[in-house]
Amino acid sequence: MSTLGNALQILALVVALVSAVCLIAGVKRRRESLVNLGYILVFANALLLTACIGIILVCLLTENYSLAYVVSNFPKTDSALKPLYQVSAVWAGRQGSLLLWTWLISIYAAVVAWRRMRVTDDLSSAALGVTEIICALFTATLVFSESNNPFMATAPEYLNADGTLVSPAGGMNPLLMHWAMILHPPATFIGYAGATLPFAYAMAALICGDMSARWVELTDRIAVFSFIFLTIGMALGAVWAYVVLGWGGFWAWDAVENASLFSWLTAVAMIHSFTMYRKHGCFKRWSMFAATLTFIFVVLGTFITRSGLVQSVHAFAEDPVSTYFFLGIMVLSGLAFLIGLLYRHGSYEDNDEIESMISKNGSYYLTNIVMVVAAILCAYLTVSSSLPGILPLGGQVIAAGAYNAVARPVGTLFCLLMAVCPMLGWRRTDGAAFARNMRVPAVLGAVLFCALMALFVTKFAPLYDQIVADGGEAAAALVEQGPKAYYFALTVAAFLAAALLFASSAYLLARGVSARMRNKGDNPVMAVFNLFRHSPAQAGGYLTHLGVAIVLVGLVGSSMYVREVTLNLDATEDQSAQVGAYELEFTGTSEYADANDNMIKQVDIDVYDAASGAALGHISPSMEVSASNTGQQTLHASVLSFPLEDLFVAFQGLNADGSLSIHVKVNPLIMLNWIGAGVAVLGIVLAFAPRRATPLLAADDRAREEGASHAA
């Protein structure tokens, strides 16, 4: 298996390089035979990398330990999900995850080649050439680095004569054996790999000198598809962090978490720029810049993970080959964009003039500025610890509180912008028309804002004082965010932005439904269905904005007003302690070994309402000590969910005096994060619904097909 896998990798590298040469040279020299050969080699490269993935998968499913990667990542568990964990082991380690990413890039290229092979237009051919160069560079990191190569053979001394392992050491990290980690990495990598194509098409436009909107029309669907999976990947990662890692949070501003965020932020700018380019012929340079920056930031995430540049709980061991290859990809991508832009500067017919910032054009422009600046700032703060001391913040590790101090006001401002933008006019906004458009959303938003303020006055304001009075790290983190008056003002502003965004989005959806009922005679159900059928991008966008408003409210509660206490309970029955409105009563412990000899110590706790004494539920947090992973401890927290908050309880082990260390968090409104994220993703998916081809693009493709048939 090792020899076959390595041979396939090397062959895939050669095929990708030859394909890139054929495609780009064929376009520049107008040689159709070279272009056709390039398309064939695109498919061949995808098949070779698919075979590589297949070898890893077969070895995992058949428990073939001839590959060191299988030994290190095979899931040793008796869980009913074991077959799925065997599949997810393909991307559980650094080698498999990089192979998965490379394979996905080749699949994207093959899909584009299949869709465009009838016309083999210059833009698509050149874009495929750029994509194959990138795929070759990724494949080279597999071939030329032992640390990245998933086909390294297992040393003979670790195997018995029948191919079984001599010792049970190694295996998948227990933290990865969770349903969310079956889905989170592939979703994220589908998003990452998809970011290659918009960049490749932008470079193709510069190579071919085609400054029309055709390259955007050919790639905007891929950009949205990629963005959908980036969003899903981030949401699943947050779920996994919350329920698995045992610390009771879902976002820690870790370097690898940030890596997905700053590429997501620039992807927002890219999609908005594509919309303006495609529909109004403006934001041309913005579209190319955002596509390039998104791709660079995607690669930067891998560079951070694999270079050892920044310390992270998710990072892999440092690898010099990865460092140079991924750094080279970023630098060359940026240089290629700048050189191409300068070379084609005279080819642009700009229509980017903004007559008034108080317009849709102006708000789109501000959206791009906010997203790009936020992404660059997040990236800079993430890598600041590795920068020289002469640079601002160079050599300093930026704490989570600093990110929160920036992200909260910026996020609030952005949501206010989202709320107002749809009510503005193109180029200029008529004041009277704007007032009419905002009248209903303003009234509805005021009602929602009053409800949120009631929640703030009755729950969050007193909770702030309670958290500070509790002391400890939670209180310190709260105080470092600034004076109490500022903290409360930020909360009020966030609630105002969320209320207005929710109201404006709901109003626009309702207005669209009402118009269909009035003009088409649809009943309410059919009006909703037809609105999303005939205007998917617009209606889906409003639904996405509505989901963002829900998430914003959830973030205020679950990140700004979290009560956190560590209890030390005697290991005797009927010991109890109160945290907020909850009474926790210890009822016993149990200790046992599972089928894989992992030791599990479980604590049983009954939860009561502290005021009424009513029973609310039973929780059993536990700690697992792995038998095969050098005693690694995994915390299995228990969560009781209520409409307005979660009670999160984790057992952290025994103290020196024999007492039980119980970590308790009360997370207000956290359910709204999951609900809002689901609504937002649904909106993006609906916006992605099939739409009719752009007339000019369709006509151009027909002309090319007719020309090809006449030539034949």
What key attributes describe this structure?
globular, disordered C terminus, 712 residues
Task: Describe the protein in words.
With 712 residues, this protein is α+β, with helices and mostly antiparallel strands. It is built from 21 helices and ten strands. The longest helix is centred in the middle third of the chain and has 40 residues, at 431-470.
**Mean of residue pLDDT values:** 86
Percent of residues in β-strands: 5-15%
Described by strand count, sense and barrel closure, the largest sheet is:
6 strands, antiparallel
Radius of gyration: 27 Å
How far apart the termini lie comes to: 44 Å
Number of DSSP helical runs: 21
Shape, please?
globular
What class, by secondary structure content? alpha+beta
Helical proportion, percent range: 55-70%
Total E-strand runs: 10
Q: Uncertain spans, ≥5 residues at pLDDT below 50? A: 706-712
